[in-house]
Amino acid sequence: MSMLNEWQDYLPDFLDGLVVTLQLTGVSLLLGLPLGLGLALAMTARRPAIRWPATLLVEVGRGAPALVVLYFVYYGLPQLSLTWSSFACAAIALAFTTSAYTADIFRAGISSIPVGHREACQALGLSHAKELRLVVLPQAIRVVIPPLVGFCILLYQGTSLAFAVSVPELLSRAYSQASITYQFTATLTLAGLVYGAISLAAVALMRARWPRRTPTITAGATRPPEPPTRTHPSWETTSERRER
Amino acid sequence: MKYDDHPVVRPLLALDGVCVAYRHHEVVHDVSLEVASGEVVALIGPSGAGKSSLLRAINFLEPPSKGRIVLDGAEVGGSRRSLDALRREVGMVFQNFNLFPHLTALQNVMLAPVHTLGIPPAQARERAMQQLTHVGLADHAHVKPGKCSGGQQQRIAIARALAMEPKVMLFDEPTSALDPELGAEVLATMRALAAEGMTMVVVTHEMHFAEDVADRVVFMADGRIVEENAAGKLMRDPQHPRTQRFLNAVRNR
Ligand SMILES: Nc1ncnc2c1ncn2[C@@H]1O[C@H](COP(=O)(O)OP(=O)(O)OP(=O)(O)O)[C@@H](O)[C@H]1O
Ligand SMILES: [Mg+2]
Question: Sorted alphabetically, which keywords does the UniProt record give (chain B) (predicted)?
Answer without folding.
Answer: Amino-acid transport, ATP-binding, Cell membrane, Membrane, Nucleotide-binding, Transport
